[in-house]
Amino acid sequence: MTKRKIWIILFIIGIVMILGASEFSRFLANEINWYTAGIILSIVSGLGLLFEMYFRRNK
C-alpha cells in the first residue's frame, strides 16, 4: 500500500470515530475519549496526507 492510501484510510477511521462516538461509547469507554481520539487521528492523518501530496508534487 502506498503512503497516500494509508493516510486516507487513517483519515476515514478518524472521521468514523468522531461520528460514531455515541454508538461505540455504549460498549467501550467514555464518549469524550472517542471524540478526542478521532479528532487527533483525523488531524494527524489529514496533515500527513497534505504533506505527502505536497512533497510528491514538488519532487
Strands, helices and their partners?
Elements: H1 3-19, H2 21-24, H3 31-57
Helix pairs in contact: 1-3
Transmembrane segments: 7-28, 34-55
Keywords: Membrane, Transmembrane, Transmembrane helix
Protein name: Secreted protein
Keywords:
single chain; mainly alpha; 59 residues; 81% helix
Question: What count of domains describes the coordinates?
Answer: 1
**SS class:** mainly alpha
User: What is the helix/strand order?
Assistant: HHH
| Contiguous runs where pLDDT drops below 50 for at least 5 residues | none
Protein name: Secreted protein
Keywords: Membrane, Transmembrane, Transmembrane helix
Organism: Ruminococcus bicirculans
What does this structure look like?
The protein is an all-alpha fold. Helix 1 runs antiparallel to helix 3. The relative contact order is 0.21.
Concise summary:
This protein is mainly α and 59 residues long. Helix content is 81%, strand content 0%.
